Amino acid sequence: MEGRSRESLIRVRSEDPRPIYVQIMDEVRRGVVLGALRPDDPLPSVRDLAAELRVSPNTVAQAYRELERSGEAYTRRGVGTFVASGVDPGRLRESLARGIAEQALREAYRSGVGVDHLLAEIRRAAGQDARPEGASTP
Amino acid sequence: MTAVRTEGLVRRFGDRVALRGLDLRVPAGGIYVLIGRNGAGKTTTLNVLLGLLRPDAGAVSVLGAEPWTRAARVRARVGYLPESSALGYPWMTARQALAFHATYHPAWDQGYEHSLVEALEVPVEVRLDQLSKGQARGVQLVMALAHRPPLLLLDEPTDGLDPVLRDRALEILADFAGSGGATLLLSTHLVHEAERLADHVGILGRGELVVQHSRAELRERLRSYRARVPEGWPEPAELGGRVWARSRSTAEIEWRVWGDSDHVVAELSAAGATVREVSDLSLEEAARTILSAQGGRNGDG
Q1: What does the alpha-carbon distance between residue B252 and residue B230 come to, in Å, rounded to a whole number?
Q2: Complex ipTM, two decimals?
Q3: Cβ of B84 under 8 Å from any chain A Cβ?
Q4: Contact A54 B192 (CB under 8 A)
Q5: Is B192 on the interface with A (CB under 8 A)?
Q6: Closest residue in chain A to residue B276, using alpha carbons only
Q7: What are the CB-based long-range contacts (under 8 Å, 24+) for B89-92?
Q8: pTM given for the model
Q9: B127-170, pLDDT tens digit by residue?
Q10: How far is CA B4 from CA B62, B199, B273, in A?
Q11: Which residues in B lie closer than 8 A to residue A50 (C-beta atoms)?
């Protein structure tokens, strides 16, 4: 609360079925993919991000630990956590896309919709210019 | 390390048994959320931890001390937010009451007090008996936090706050938890508010802990399973774990089972069901599932 720096772009949703630490990890990845976070950029401090998101600091620390373990971030003791130097936005985009696909598949399966049907509908929806303004095909 | 521990805590009020053998374990340096319906024993538990009530049986350790034999030591190191928003000195202004409260706490941090007063919009020149419930709650939160105690005991902390101040109170609590290893024990029946904060969860039903786990363990152990089953399907007696809830439509059954996911799915598949979905429960869904089963409709908890 005291003297907090500006807000981060990290958002989590309580209704999201994924654990909050996983949501934080994916938000950091999204930041890298979109270019908002670059290699060696600092992540918010655990305390600041916990207060900003109204989550337990242990949850933020867990997200940072897991990002470190997967080589996407590094921590300098007493300084903070940073985006890894060698982080590859292309690979992160792939892993985000996989997550979105898995979510869509789960939802489709739950409703008795098969893979082919789902893919056809995604193509059709994309063809109807469902993309928000400004979005571009990578 | 454990910040708060009770063993076999029993407390009666006349014929009514409020706590029946409570074994609480609150790990140091995290947020423990105590969930229960009204009358489950949450407030009694906190009052015993603070030394305001003596238990009829059982042992209590709060930051390594027994609260009623080391009352001064424990109260100096604990911040407490009572359930009731009534304040002791109705003729004082909020500013006077805070200054008075500060004299009992050598560790009182005036800078922190001011930032809390501002964030919670406490009208410091108003007499306590003229404050709204939410404003009184704000004063109580400042009183609980401003000496930066290593342990906070909070009874329904957001009760009476409007949506803006409620959100600010949650921000203050998350920040406090990150300010150097503090332990927070908060009781609530507004579970959706605590969802993001909870590191550890205790679900209290009728004076006993039905469940006490880390949030991660609870998420992993209690899940929802939806499966399509053939007509006239003989449901197996064993599902590889305790069934807390079950609901059935014409072609689909949903179970909420405490157990190992792979094991439960294997049992269901082996019995001829087609498992369509295995999903995590929100903290609120998990608590509701457990507390309504405990209510007696699905057998004794």
Answers
A1: 9
A2: 0.90
A3: no
A4: no
A5: yes
A6: A110
A7: B89/B128, B90/B127, B90/B128, B90/B129, B91/B127, B91/B128, B91/B129, B92/B127, B92/B128
A8: 0.91
A9: 999 999 999 999 999 999 999 999 999 999 999 999 999 999 99
A10: 5, 15, 45
A11: 174-175, 177-178
